[in-house]
Amino acid sequence: MLRGLRATYEATHKVTIRDEALVAAVKLSHRYIAGRQLPDKAVDLLDTAATRVRIEHDAKPEAIVAHEERLAALGRELELRKREHEEGAAIDGDAQAEVEGRHAGVQDALATLRGRWEAERAALAEVEAARERLRQGEAGEEARTAKRAADERFQAIGGEDRLIHAEVDADAVARVVETWTGIPAGKMRSDTLGALLSLQDRLGERVRGQASAVRVVAETLRIAAAGIHNPSTPLGVLLFVGPSGVGKTETATALADLLYGGERFMTAIAMSEFQEKHSVSRLIGSPPGYVGYGEGGVLTEAVRQRPYSVVLLDECEKADLEVMNLFYQVFDKGTLSDGEGRVVDFKNTVVILTSNLASKLVMQRASQPGCTAEAIAEAIRPALSRHFKPALLARMTIVPFLPLPPEVLREITELKLGALKRRLWDSHKIEARFASEMVDDLAQRCTESEAGARNVEAILRSSLMPTLSQKLLEAFAAGQAVREAVVGLGGEGWQIELR
Asked: Which positions fall inside the Clp ATPase C-terminal domain (predicted)?
């Protein structure tokens, strides 16, 4: 259908539309734009992309406009500082130097962008001239060679991050979807097969100390990508089993980001809220005649809106078993009917269940030398079968999450402290330094706690942050210019020195 409309849109917008743009409009609108139907949303997407490309040919790029506005704002700030100084007001030398540096940086960046824009406009004129000669009937090899050369020059000047699109391609379509949904265009343009092949490595970078669990997850999704899994089931049904604070929820979050484009593509449901049989209506929606009919269920409505997503059923062992029976249909047929009778498709979802059942057994087995993840999964299966019905458990892939070793807990502690360090710098331009013994103490406290890595955040939030914030506010109230915060261990807790 879009191929039939192609000539009309090209004539209307006076741009060239490549076939890859038509394919991208259908695929991206189907995957990322919810609440509307094909072909309507694909047509609107293509129309908007063509309009934007036409505007790029005639108007100043948004990047240049944004830099000009930023430069003007910094110029006004410098002018105001200059006037206050002339009137005798005290000037903060460091702040003045910082503003001047930012002004110079934006000025240089703007000059670079303007140079790129002029070069791209000149190259685009060559491309359009060569294309017009071909349209006028110059079909010789010389005309085609000139067109290819003009295209190559344009691509070489603009690169991947070009300011002007010569034609409507898949990249132009992806950028429109990015504006509509907030999903980075780069993630939509990335090769899906390549992303799955590298999933194990990229997931391992996000989830520390769980190499065996990451491998099982990646293998499950590669089987689905190869098309050799049961096409009537979700892409994966994974049961994450292990103690708290070892990365189960973080793995689900990372999968949503790496596979689908962001954490918004994860539906997280706390199954501890479904301990009564009648609470199943909250998942699928109330039937006709009952309160809440027409509002949709928290599970079915989320998947209906985003059929490509991760579904996280957190602490599933706390839900009533009758509620869990609801998932037989999802795990077996990849569909579920909501309260209004609409069939919701789960075939493009990854369903992840987390549980703390058999955590002690996992920890005992993990402490035995040479015990593999597969052996641990088989060892905990009888304990899981005592809670879940065997028929339901058979539809899941058991993925044991092992206790984190001390060196991994130290890595995670350093990451959390690094995040705190960045927040201090972004908020107040304060450089934070954490003593090595403090990092060791935090990691040791996490090793001794059943909360695992989650305990790092709890300790920072309950003890370090209150003390640090008190010191900072006292310094700010006294008019002290703080440039550095050094945190270490003292006799009675944290020792914080502001400089």
From this structure: 404-489
